[in-house]
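Dig into these lines:

——
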Amino acid sequence: MKQENQAVFITGVAQSNERVSELLRNLANNSPWLTRPELVEITASTVALSARDQRRVSNFSMRVGLQRATAPKVPGSAPAGSAPSAAPAAAAIPPKA
């Protein structure tokens, strides 16, 4: 990962192109801090796990924008900056004699 101003550049290795697509969808739909994910490059290569075992992988790079998350609105809550309403005073209980 590398950040430049309001952009984050991500490079990595995935099991397949479908996994990269899934990451892009998740960044676009499930993050309040990241926006506009954009695939820059994807290339196929092989990784040697052992002398006889090789796997096809997808090397990728993408760019994602940063934004400040906004607090979720709670129904019936007061707007930010407004004074809270006064709570009713508790009834005083006289001491037992």
